């Protein structure tokens, strides 16, 4: 009993010390902010006081000679320069702070992928068409679940900062649904509902500023989505809503010499993009064969193949992938670096649309091929 009371007193004292420390820290912060405000306001005041004092108290300022006028102009020029530099320094400080906050927010939205998930090596890159924006209208995510490694690659209509709200809605829904839904159609249904809620909220917010009968930009909003699931045996299953199909990059083995190292995976007509039209009642999952050990998948948004050079020619993605896989071993980072470098060179350093690239390489041990699984690209 006595020990319990002593322990309680010690905990109370410790909490008191922590509270005192936090209170002292808050007082220091308030004092520091006051000092900064005084500096911000005091320096321009000091410059103004110098100019007024010179004009009223200095005998030279009262003369009309050429030398006096030159001296007066020099004084006021120095005062003006000091004020401009002070304002510029403050603006740069605010811009750096805004950049840090925006970078942190964008990092949470489109967070960096780990280099490895469940035996798959990863590499990803994205480029926003808007200057100063770290995230645009392209999205991707790779998550390891009990159902397999699940991947989403998407492209919102438009680009840059205006599409970030839709990116946040789709990614937030995907990160939750992949763990809850055992099948890909259930994941896609949740993405569709999240997209519908997002568009409804945007339409409600824009209704007051829109003319009667005017649909506005929300009515034309949509997002293309590719959902991909890679099982433990390398089996790939997909649902495609209007998104470009990925490329398969084969290993340097006999099948690669026969069929070629780069193969575009295309499996019929995709589903409609999310947004303008409801999805059909049946969502047939496409079996895309197997991702064998040593092979890789290259996923991308349409901003890659649509990038044009000065002569209007499209970016030759297949040729760039063939070049990237020409030397072995070709790691995901090496493939990504080669393609991204060639893309920027082709587009003159700045593509007109947002760009996202994702490479997944199977580094798992050899797994026997199941006899019941359909193989589409073998």
Describe this structure in words.
The protein has 378 residues and is an alpha+beta fold. It folds into 2 domains: 2-104, no CATH class; 112-362, PPM-type phosphatase domain (Phosphatase 2c, domain 1, 4-Layer Sandwich). Helix content is 47%, strand content 17%. It has helices at 2-57, 59-62, 66-109, 164-180, 184-207, 254-259, 302-305, 317-324, 332-346, and strands at 116-117, 120-127, 138-145, 148-156, 223-230, 235-241, 247-249, 262-264, 286-290, 296-300, 355-362. It has a 6-stranded antiparallel β-sheet. Strands 3-4-5-6-9 form a 5-stranded antiparallel β-sheet, with helices on one face.
Short précis:
The protein has 378 residues and is an alpha+beta fold. The protein folds into two domains: 2-104, no CATH class; 112-362, 4-Layer Sandwich (Phosphatase 2c, domain 1). It has helices spanning 2-57, 59-62, 66-109, 164-180, 184-207, 254-259, 302-305, 317-324, 332-346, and strands at residues 116-117, 120-127, 138-145, 148-156, 223-230, 235-241, 247-249, 262-264, 286-290, 296-300, 355-362.
